Amino acid sequence: MQQNIIKIKVGSKNPVKISAAAKAMAQLFPDAQIDAQGMDAPSGVADQPMTDLETRQGAINRVRYCQQQSQKQNTEADYYFAMEGGVDCFEFGPATFAYIAIGHQDQLAIGRSAILPLPMQVYRALEAGEELGVVMDKLFNTVNIKQKGGAIGLLTHGHATRESNYTHAIILAMAPLLNPEFYL
């Protein structure tokens, strides 16, 4: 019996994002083989999105770019994923989160991760133009944390990670694609 293969493209070459998409799909489709590939995809927004809206648009832009490029190159996938991390200052204070965009055939599903409250000093550095990963590396004396546990891992003492947050958010964002009859 041949195993079902699900091809996915992730709008990033960041190993954390590729792994999160692959793990989420493996949980949702345990009998399938998941073929996950990353590709560079521009977000069309700032390197460090500073609003909820900008972050969501970055994820959507990445998915659409992946779909267009795959169609041009005749390397289409079953699903396209993008995770765009951003920050915003809410009524309770600054926080970071990610938007998830998932393209499947002619459908686009959107989700958002849990939020992580940020220290005000970190938010101020972001407002001054720095990226979250760089600020966290300086604060915690780490190197390239954005391709590891992320700010989430550092601020939760490893009890949650960037990858675990993305994986959970992807699973939730897949609901309309898993149950299209209810999302007309």
Please provide a written account of the structure:
The protein has helices at 15-28, 52-73, 120-127, 132-140, 150-155, 162-173, 175-178, and strands at residues 4-10, 32-38, 79-90, 93-104, 107-112, 116-117. The radius of gyration is 16 Å and the shape is globular. The chain has seven helices and six strands. It is an alpha/beta fold. Strands 1, 2, 3, 4, 5 and 6 form a six-stranded mixed beta sheet that branches. Helix content is 41%, strand content 25%. A hairpin with a 2-residue loop joins strand 3 and strand 4 (93-104).
Q: Strand content of the residues, in percent? A: 25-35%
Helix content: 40-55%
Mean pLDDT across all amino acids:
95
Low-confidence stretches: none
Give the CA-CA distance, first to last residue: 35 Å
For the largest beta-sheet, the strand count, sense and barrel status come to: 6 strands, mixed
Brief overview:
The chain has 184 residues and is α/β, with parallel strands linked by helices.
Question: What is the strand and helix layout of this fold?
Answer:
Blueprint: E1 4-10, H1 15-28, E2 32-38, H2 52-73, E3 79-90, E4 93-104, E5 107-112, E6 116-117, H3 120-127, H4 132-140, H5 150-155, H6 162-173, H7 175-178
Parallel strand pairs: 1-2, 1-3
Antiparallel strand pairs: 3-4, 4-5, 4-6
Write a concise keyword list for the protein shown above.
184 residues, 25% strand, alpha/beta
